[in-house]
Every structure is written in C-alpha cells, then in structure tokens.
Write a structure and sequence with these properties.
Length: 188
C-alpha cells in the first residue's frame, strides 16, 4: 500500500523487471507501471541463392540461405504520476519515485549490457558485452535495446510517455527453467 500512496498507481500483478548480465550489475529494476502495449515482431528473411560451384569437375550447385532476423519486442506506456511530499507535481518531479524509476530505465538503456574496465579513473574501456534481461509474464527475454523514446504530452501533465524497441536474442520460458532445475538437481 505504501508504493500505491507514493506513485498514484497500484502495484502491477505481473511486474516487468530489467536486469543486466554484467559483472557487477545494479539492483533489478521493476517498472512501477507495466507498458500499455507490448508487441513481439518476427521478421522472416527470405534471402536464398543458388550458386554454381567454381570447380568445373563437380557440377553441383550450392544453396545459400540466411537465418531469420532477430525478434523485436516493442513496448510503450507511461510512467507513474510524479508524486512528491507536496502532492502531484511537475515542479518537484525529479524528487518523485516515478521519475527515479524512469531514470533507472534510462540507465539500463544507456548501459545496454556493457562491462566497463574502470581501472583508469580518467576513462573507461569496454571490456566485454553482456545482455539485458527483461522478465515479464513467465518469460525471460535476453537481448539489447535498440531505441528508447521519452515524451511529455499535454494530455498527461504529471507523467511521461515512453516507448522502446528491444532486439531479442533468446526467449526462455520460466516454467520450463524451473521444471528443469527441479528435476535435474539430484542427477549428476
């Protein structure tokens, strides 16, 4: 009930969570309000070619095919209302929990699963590339962000609209993961 009072929204029954697969990840980000729209798009790649082999002793053809494109998860929604100790506000929006939640989403987007080597305090070098994990509705989506857009509209003066596109490299069913973990514990 305390979260409801501070954000102006009830907690989501199936929250959307963001994690980074990096060496020292920040705490898990849970959106205060789930996106209004969530769409997963599949792009089939139909690029095939028959090429004649250059060896004239062998008259066979080689069929070259390419894999399908990666799936894209597109989501759009709005933040919780900017509620501070002075009530619903735009002036103190940066002091609200909803604004902090949006800033954390922006930080996950900017990091996008990169591991930095911070041994030199003047600059940091990318050491390795991890992935972003989105957990929602019984599935874990592993991949990286392509875009994140944040807009302010006159229709919703005390919140911000956001949308993002996320390129999926792997989809994992949490039910299957739990089943496999439970039944393979005793096997060696």
């Amino acid at each position: 009930m305390a979260v409801y009072n501070r954000t102006g929204a009830k907690p989501a029954s199936k929250p959307m969570a963001f994690d980074l697969e990096i060496k020292e990840p920040p705490p898990t980000l849970i959106l205060l309000i789930n996106p209004d729209n969530l769409d997963i798009k599949f792009a089939h790649k139909t690029n095939e070619a028959r090429v004649r082999w250059v060896d004239y002793d062998d008259s066979a053809y080689i069929l070259q095919t390419h894999h399908d494109e990666l799936d894209t998860l597109s989501a759009s929604g709005k933040t919780a209302m900017f509620y501070s100790d002075k009530g619903i506000t735009n002036i103190d929006a940066t002091k609200s929990l909803a604004y902090e939640n949006l800033q954390q989403l922006l930080a996950v987007f900017k990091n996008n699963g990169l591991n930095y080597n911070r041994r030199n305090p003047r600059y940091s070098v990318i050491e390795s590339v991890g992935r972003v994990l989105i957990t929602y509705d019984g599935y874990i989506y592993r991949g990286s962000f392509e875009t994140l857009t944040i807009n302010e509209t006159a229709e919703n003066p005390f919140s911000l609209d956001f949308s993002y596109d996320f390129k999926i490299t792997e989809i994992m069913d949490m039910g299957t993961l739990l089943y496999n973990q439970f039944f393979t514990q005793g096997q060696g």
